[in-house]
Amino acid sequence: MPFDEMLTKDGGVRQAYDQFQSWFQLQEAKSLALKASEAEGLFRRTGITFNVYGAQDAAERLIPFDLVPRIISGQEWAPLAEGIEQRVQALNAFLHDIYHDQEIVRAGIVPARLIEGNEAFLPQMVGFRPPGGVYTHIIGVDIVRTEENRFYVLEDNARTPSGVSYMIENRETMMQMFPELFAQNRVRPVENYPRHLRRSLAGVAPSACNGPVRIAVLTPGIHNSAYYEHAFLADQMGVELVEGADLMTVDGRIAMRTTQGYLPIDVLYRRVDDAYLDPEVFNPESMLGVPGIMDVYKNGGITIANAPGTGIADDKAIYSYMPEIVQFYTGRSAILENVPTWRCTEADSLAYVLEHLDELVVKEVHGSGGYGMLVGPAASKAEIELFAAKLRQRPSNYIAQPTLALSTVPILTEAGLAPRHVDLRPFVLVGETIKIIPGGLTRVALQEGSLVVNSSQGGGTKDTWVLEA
């Protein structure tokens, strides 16, 4: 049985939900339904949408929003935050190491083939230390809670993690519609994220910066699935939103076009993938990046956040070694454990996975957004056979994990509260210090019994409350 975050096994209400339950019992179903409709209208007017790649109806969609907050006590959050900070420290140390001495490879802990043959490993970053020594300035760590009431890391998002705008908008919507709930509960803030983000980015300005730090957000453009978030964060930070065509190299700096002419940028928060970042170095056909930006970067003329080459930390085969990586760089066992993982590149693991495909979740090592994966218990026999053929053809492209009984939290249905499965993406900012936002983006599987929480696969979101201790 999955762990119910609101109710105990005997039907009692857990302490974190006490105030909410007392409030909810006084509400009328019709009033809450109207509030749900009002929330949808707010999101539609604000333009909080996303695109689904490859969908026939690929028009922008609203992410469904559930009114019932997910509530985490301060006592539950404290060890979770400690584990996240430890993991982020280890990830940055790992990235520095693999682009320098590769001590973890020479120690025989991470196989060299996972680095050398990895498409996310950038030889252009070898020997280069980013400003402030920070590789992953913005990280999203996907967390799940299982039936034994334990938190596990499902995956790391160290390249260009998305979803923080939904976290902020969810909170602002809840505060607007239910101010009395916030008066009754001591909820830690998340709405100050843009201010923390700006401060964190300013703290890693390059050596060429000799005045107030000028920051910009680089977007691929309006057709990107996360364009709303790019525009939202730029607006909330009070910085410019730019595309590659707005930028050029001027006197050894990257400068953006303005009404005052071209002005140099100190820190570029890029939401463009490595392959498209610099057509002179990577994909020569890219129209999204900036010619020459890698030279400027390596000469100390600009900070790129997140650093090029961080995508290797997102690799799910690398993920499987994270307990050893944490131990190697921090000298301590990982506070947050990984979900058990089979590396399909290993013959014994591949044999086991092929024999148990109907029980497992199989993911591409570079996959994201729920694409390219198999959820064995929900797949047909034909889908399993097709996926088995893919596995045999390219086993190194996949890892497998058990089908987890994700914890449940209540959502609002026509019949009242009903449990649904969730995960959590807390966001971490790394600059001069490490800042963990208390809460994050809770994604919820809206269909009864479903374990798929990705918005691109039909999931929704809800506000995440971390209570003061």
TrEMBL record:
Boundaries of each Circularly permuted ATP-grasp type domain copy? 69-445
- Would you indicate the residue range of the signal peptide? none
Pfam families reported in the protein's UniProt record: CP_ATPgrasp_2
The protein's matches in Gene3D superfamilies, at most eight in alphabetical order, are given as:
3.30.1490.270, 3.40.50.11290
What protein does this entry describe? Answer: Circularly permuted type 2 ATP-grasp protein
Q: Which organism is it from?
A: Aureimonas fodinaquatilis
Supply the source organism's classification: Bacteria, Pseudomonadati, Pseudomonadota, Alphaproteobacteria, Hyphomicrobiales
